[in-house]
Design brief:
Distance between the termini: 12 Å
Number of strands: 12
Structural class: alpha+beta
Largest sheet: 4 strands, antiparallel
Strand content: 15-25%
Radius of gyration: 22 Å
C-alpha cells in the first residue's frame, strides 16, 4: 500500500548507460509488447496441473528467431524466455564484448520476428513500440529476473481467476488515511493483526526474539503489518513473506501515478 499523501519520484542512473557499456558483458532482461496489447503470440489456458500458453504461428516464430539470433551472435546466451499472449520476455547474457550492442541485436531480432509475422499474413507492426530493458545491477537480481520470467504464465492465470487481487485500488481508506493499494483487501479488516515496528538500533538478538514472536502469531492466524523500513522490520517482513503468511506492507512510493502510462498494466516487481 502507498500513502496518497507521500509521493517521491525516484531517479536512478547506472554505469551501464555509459558509452560502450551495451557491447560489454552484461545480463539484460528484455520485454517486448505486442501491438495494442493484442493476443498475437498465444492463448492462455490451463492443462489441469499448470497454466500454459498455446502459441500462435507468430508465437512460434518468436522462438525460431531466438535460435537464429544465437547462431548470429555466439557471444550471447539466453538464460530464460517466455512467450505470453500479448508480450514476451528474454533474459540475455552477453558473455564477452560484441561488435554490436545488445540494443542493436534486439532490434535485429524484433525485425526478424516482424518479417516472420508477415509470412503468416500479419502486415501490421507486431510490436507496440521499443522494448523495455532491465539490466542486472545488484546481487540477487539475476535469480529474481529468471524466476519472474518462469512464473509469468502462472501469474497471468491467477490474475485472470482473481482479477480484483491484481488491480490497483485508489483511495483505499485505513485508519482515517487514504492509500493506493493492491492485493487481498480482506486482510485490512482481519480481526487478528500484529504491527511490526522496530528501532534502527535494534540488536540482532532483539530482532531474532521479535521474529520468533511474530512467526508464532502468524502461524496462529495473525496478519502482519509493517512499513519494512528498519533492518529488523525488513528481515521480519521477508521471513513472513517467504513462509507464506499473510503480510501487509506500507510503502512510501510503491505505485505509478494515477493517469500514468504504466498504470493499466502495473504489477509489483521483485519478490512482491
Amino acid at each position: 500500500m502507498t500513502n496518497e499523501n507521500k509521493s517521491t519520484p525516484k531517479n536512478e542512473t547506472f554505469t551501464w548507460l555509459q558509452p560502450g557499456a551495451w557491447r560489454k558483458p552484461c545480463i539484460v532482461h528484455v520485454t517486448m509488447v505486442a501491438n495494442s496489447r493484442q493476443a498475437l503470440f498465444g492463448k492462455l489456458t490451463h492443462n489441469g496441473s499448470e497454466a500454459v500458453i498455446e502459441k500462435t504461428p507468430i508465437g512460434w516464430a518468436l522462438i525460431n528467431q531466438q535460435r537464429r539470433l544465437l547462431e548470429l551472435c555466439p557471444e550471447i546466451k539466453i538464460l530464460a524466455d517466455k512467450v505470453m499472449p500479448d508480450h514476451h520476455h528474454i533474459v540475455f547474457q552477453v558473455q564477452r564484448t560484441m561488435p554490436r550492442s545488445i540494443r542493436e541485436v534486439v532490434r535485429g531480432y524484433m525485425q526478424g520476428c516482424k518479417e516472420e509475422a508477415r509470412k503468416h499474413g500479419f502486415t501490421e507492426n507486431i510490436y507496440d513500440g521499443p522494448p523495455f530493458y532491465r539490466v542486472l545491477t545488484h546481487k540477487g537480481q539475476l535469480h529474481a529476473m529468471i524466476e519472474y520470467v518462469k512464473a509469468n504464465t502462472e501469474r497471468a492465470w491467477q490474475r485472470r481467476q482473481n482479477p480484483d487481487l491484481f488491480r490497483m485500488h485508489r483511495k483505499t481508506e485505513a485508519c482515517g488515511l487514504l492509500f493506493t493499494s493492491m492485493g487481498n483487501h480482506f486482510l485490512l479488516e482481519w480481526p487478528d493483526r500484529q504491527l511490526v515496528e522496530m528501532s534502527r538500533s535494534a540488536s540482532n538478538e532483539q530482532i531474532d526474539e521479535r521474529l520468533k514472536s511474530v512467526l508464532a502469531a502468524a502461524h496462529n492466524g495473525a496478519v502482519t503489518y509493517t512499513a519494512a523500513i528498519s533492518t529488523g522490520e525488513r528481515i521480519i517482513a521477508r521471513t513472513v513473506r517467504e513462509k507464506g503468511f499473510p503480510l501487509v506492507v506500507l510503502l512510501n512510493d510503491g505505485f505509478p501515478a494515477e493517469g500514468s502510462p504504466h498504470e493499466r498494466f502495473y504489477k509489483p516487481g521483485g519478490a512482491y
